[in-house]
């Protein structure tokens, strides 16, 4: 005789209903969560800790982090799983993956999980600059989490040695060249022992380039993600400036500069200034054996940097219960206190203004003012390059940038060719 039958016979229907209700409540909703990092290291420990804390507070939801490699590897794995019918319930992927995920019908809008006044206040709580890569066509598709901008780092000791004020970074394009000339060192044979500056051109060349184009007053794409402007005169001007740093002014190494080794070159005093992500802030603080500064990127016609980094997305083929559970987790992990602590622990920009008003963040910024630079740059920031067929459209630009930086093409021809290729790819998406 079953337990339910026994209960029905001995205590009646009410007790049976109570038992079934308790059993249903005890069922755990599983939320597989793809996170873009290789296995191991401090980031995984932080994420594991968040998942454990959340499950303690929400015993009916089990969040399971799955470390899926780089951002590129993670989206490939997520889309492969989506096509096979077993996608993650949620994942942190690049904000620029938004159009790709929409085109693959892989994600659901976040708006469907915004039901109360508190939910609406939460969705409005993020920095507007981060929402430009999170919304399109009147809907919100991603929630900002680990976001960044490009910033300038400089070696204060190198500035002193060059006769520059160690507390005053370059603030304009002209000053950047002038300072970099004074900071470039050569030995008796004329070989460079310290470059004035480095702007990486591998890995994410389009992203660093967007710093130059924004400062030149240009946008690289429209908000609908179906048009690029690679061949505009201001874009060509921005690329010419970048190329001239090495070919004309001789303040930066010629050819392609590696993204991954640029911070190491900075630590080893092979370059006195570098452009890189604010996400490297914790790394630089831990490894630079000299006083360093962090500043907004120097202005051309205007100040500016692209935003960057990852958003949370919720996948369409998961169950309604899983989607609701994922939304609960995303709201939980992006509270002001947790957004602040994530920024402190990683160097990413805390994604909502009120997180900067928390006691922990105020104390952190008081002791390390450089942490606030990326936040202060946000009013001047623009959306990172993102379109339909984003990887192919971005590759067209990256190929053009490499061609110009290596001298294979003039900046004008490189951008003309990149625009022609991007326009060809995007033609089917024109509305």
From TrEMBL:
Keywords: Signal
Top-level taxon of origin: Bacteria
GO cellular component, one term: periplasmic space
Cited InterPro entries: Bact_solute-bd_prot1, SBP
Location (main, coarse): periplasm
Pfam families: SBP_bac_8
SUPFAM superfamilies hit by this protein: Periplasmic binding protein-like II (SSF53850)
Signal peptide limits: 1-26
Subcellular location field: Periplasm
Family: Belongs to the bacterial solute-binding protein 1 family.
Name the UniProt record assigns to this protein: Carbohydrate ABC transporter substrate-binding protein (CUT1 family)
């Amino acid at each position: 005789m079953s337990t339910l039958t026994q209960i029905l016979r001995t205590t009646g229907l009410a007790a049976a209903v109570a038992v079934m209700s308790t059993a249903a409540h005890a069922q755990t909703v599983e939320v597989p969560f793809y996170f873009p990092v290789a296995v191991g290291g401090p980031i995984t420990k932080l994420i594991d800790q968040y998942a454990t804390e959340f499950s303690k507070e929400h015993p009916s939801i089990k969040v399971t982090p799955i470390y899926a490699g780089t951002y590129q590897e993670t989206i490939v794995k997520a889309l492969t799983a989506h096509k096979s019918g077993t996608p993650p319930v949620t994942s942190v992927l690049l904000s620029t993956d938004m159009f790709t995920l929409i085109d693959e019908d892989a994600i659901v809008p976040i708006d469907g999980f915004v039901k109360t006044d508190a939910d609406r206040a939460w969705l409005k709580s993020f920095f507007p600059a981060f929402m430009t890569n999170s919304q399109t066509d009147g809907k919100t598709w991603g929630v900002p989490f680990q976001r960044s901008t490009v910033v300038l780092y400089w070696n204060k000791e190198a500035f002193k040695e060059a006769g520059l004020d160690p507390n005053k970074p370059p603030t304009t394009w002209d000053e950047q060249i002038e300072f970099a000339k004074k900071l470039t060192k050569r030995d008796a044979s004329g070989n460079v022992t310290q470059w004035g500056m480095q702007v990486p051109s591998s890995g994410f060349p389009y992203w660093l380039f967007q710093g130059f184009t924004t400062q030149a007053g240009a946008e690289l794409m429209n908000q609908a993600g179906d048009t690029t402007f690679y061949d505009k005169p201001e874009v060509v001007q921005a690329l010419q400036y970048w190329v001239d740093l090495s070919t004309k002014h001789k303040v930066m190494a010629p050819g392609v500069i590696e993204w991954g080794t640029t911070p190491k070159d900075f630590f080893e005093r092979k370059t006195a200034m570098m452009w890189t992500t604010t996400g490297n802030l914790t790394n630089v603080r831990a490894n630079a054996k000299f006083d360093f500064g962090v500043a907004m990127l120097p202005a051309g016609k205007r100040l500016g940097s692209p935003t960057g980094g990852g958003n949370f997305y919720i996948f369409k083929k998961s169950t309604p219960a899983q989607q609701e559970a994922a939304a609960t987790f995303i709201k939980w992990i992006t509270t002001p206190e947790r957004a602040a602590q994530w920024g402190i622990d990683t160097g990413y920009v805390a994604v909502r203004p009120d997180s900067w008003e928390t006691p922990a963040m105020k104390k952190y910024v008081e002791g390390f003012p450089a942490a606030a630079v990326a936040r202060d740059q946000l009013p001047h920031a623009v959306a990172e390059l993102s379109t339909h067929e984003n990887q192919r459209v971005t590759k067209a630009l990256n190929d053009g940038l490499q061609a110009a930086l290596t001298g294979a093409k003039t900046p004008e021809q490189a951008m003309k060719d990149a625009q022609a290729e991007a326009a060809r790819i995007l033609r089917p998406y024109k509305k």
